[in-house]
Amino acid sequence: MKIQKQQLEDLNKSGISDHKTKFNFLTQSLSKDGTDVENIINKLAEFQVAIPSWALGAGGTRFGRFSYGGEPASLEQKIEDIGLIHSLTQTAGAVSLHIPWDVPNDYQAIKELAALNKIKFDAVNSNTFQDQKDQKETYKYGSLSNTSVAVREQAIAHNKEVIEIGNKLGSKSLTVWLADGASFPGQNNFQTALTHTQNSLIDIYEDMPADWKMFIEYKPYEPYFYSTVIQDWGTSLMLANGCGERAYTLVDLGHHLPNTNIEQIVSILMLKGKLGGFHFNDSKYGDDDITVGSIKPYALFLIFNELVYGMQNNPQNPELGWMIDASHNLKDPLEDLIQSLEAIQEAYAKALLIDQNALRAAQEAHDVTRCQEILQEAYRTDVRPLVREARLKTGGVINPIAAYRKLEVREQLIKERGKNTIATGL
Ligand SMILES: [Mn+2]
């Protein structure tokens, strides 16, 4: 299925006058306060988030998986699905591949298909948390941290292969997330596990092309319950520093213990020039991987405040690799991604509205009340007209979910692919 430009224009006709009224009203009131609305629209229009190749199908839990009709059965179909979301939102202009779930058969054809859909290849992800068919060594007791040289070598070789695949497609970064850890006290020697991990990562790092970056992801628990080798941002930063200047920490919103101050982590990493990648999702209890902004939109806004501050004030930090890392088993996965993209754009727009000069002055005057007022003034602004305007400007639709339903995208996909297809992934 491919959405035609004319269809998008037709969809926008009915909502345009209502949109213009709201947009003009908001622009007027923001401009009066000295906000550069055009600058915000441009920033929103430029902002692109990668979609992971495994998020196009319905997610499972450890208790089961209920497939959604019309799921993409091949990498080609996954790229087409991202193309559909991108044509509606103009915000999903990249794909992040998980290897070995999505190894291309024909590289040239995949590159052409991606270009046709205006999709770039973002970070590639290695997978040493599962055993694959015909694999010699098992990752049951760890991969890059394993006490066995043979297992470590196999895991290192896999990461190098992922770099090679990514390189053929035009990716420029490798994301490493390790499931390595222990479920019981005494099972692992912490120092040995970390030392092996550092040495394995250095081996992989040295194999990367000179213009590549490595993102090291951390997580406090799961799939193991007593300890993980890369448990927090401090450990990730230590490992990144041990590898070299093109290794960075990756922050995944769901990979923190409850109530962790993620915005502070983001801020400090950017000050040190070491925040490389960012994974969006939301959660109530643990790494729940639910729709961005569905549970804690204010926390997301505070995180975006620090991201915006860092992007404006920390030239030592590289441009970030943004990805949605969410998947669950209830909603249509494409509608879920559209909602996540919308939440990301809204939080970004609100953070861009914060009067940074006024905030600094209030901080210096120790006017705590005013500091809160400044943040919440931005947060309480309904920025949806700005997000819609950015979408219109780049050729998207005013209301992507409504458009998705009106075009009967899922029904079309089921017609094309059948009811019982299952996407690769978790
Ligand atoms: Mn992640």
How would you describe this protein?
- With 426 residues, the chain is of the alpha/beta class.
- The protein has a single domain (48-348), classed as Divalent-metal-dependent TIM barrel enzymes (TIM Barrel).
- Helices cover 49% and strands 10% of the residues.
- It has 15 helices and 13 strands.
- It has a six-stranded parallel beta sheet. It has a three-stranded parallel beta sheet with strand order 1-4-5, with no helix packed on it.
- α9 packs across α10 (333-353) and α11 (356-364) packs antiparallel against α12.
- The longest helix is centred in the N-terminal third of the chain and has 28 residues, at 5-32.
- It is globular and about 65 Å long.
- Manganese (II) ion is lined by residues 177, 217, 252, 279, 325.
Task: Detail the topology: elements first, then pairings.
Layout: H1 5-32, H2 37-46, E1 50-52, E2 60-61, E3 64-65, H3 75-89, E4 94-96, H4 107-116, E5 120-121, E6 124-125, H5 149-169, E7 173-176, E8 181-182, H6 190-207, E9 213-217, E10 227-228, H7 233-243, E11 247-252, H8 262-271, E12 275-280, H9 297-313, E13 321-324, H10 333-353, H11 356-364, H12 368-379, H13 384-393, H14 400-406, H15 409-417
Parallel strand pairs: 1-4, 4-5, 6-7, 7-9, 9-11, 11-12, 12-13
Antiparallel strand pairs: 2-3, 8-10
Helix pairs in contact: 1-13, 2-13, 3-10, 5-6, 8-9, 9-10, 11-12
Manganese (II) ion binds at residues 177, 217, 252, 279, 325.
